[in-house]
Design a protein that fits this description.
mainly alpha, elongated
Length: about 90
C-alpha cells in the first residue's frame, strides 16, 4: 500500500501524476517485440509448408512488413539473420 503524499505548503493530499507513455516504444522496438512472437510461428509454418494456408497469418505478416518498413528494417533480412544466428538456417 502506498503512502499518501501531502503538499507541505497546504497539507493536502496530492494526486499522483499520470504518466504519458505516448511514443514510449519506437517502431523498431515494436517490430522486434512482435517478431519474438512471430518467428516461432513462421518457422513452424515454413517447416510444415503452410505459410500461405491461413489468411490471418498472411495479414499478420503484411502488418509486420509495414511495421518493419516504418522502422527501417527489412523483414526478410531480419528473419534470415535471426535464423542464421539461432541455428535455424540450413
Amino acid at each position: 500500500m502506498s503512502e499518501e503524499i501531502k503538499n507541505p505548503e497546504t497539507n493536502e493530499a496530492e494526486k499522483p501524476q499520470e504518466t504519458d507513455f505516448t511514443n514510449f516504444l519506437t517502431a523498431e522496438d515494436e517490430f522486434r517485440m512482435e517478431m519474438e512472437k512471430y518467428i516461432p510461428v513462421f518457422v513452424e509454418r515454413l517447416t510444415s509448408n503452410t505459410l500461405e494456408s491461413d489468411q490471418d497469418f498472411i495479414n499478420w505478416t503484411l502488418e509486420l512488413m509495414d511495421l518493419g518498413k516504418a522502422a527501417g528494417i527489412d523483414m526478410q533480412k531480419y528473419i534470415m539473420d535471426y535464423c542464421h544466428e539461432n541455428g535455424l538456417a540450413q
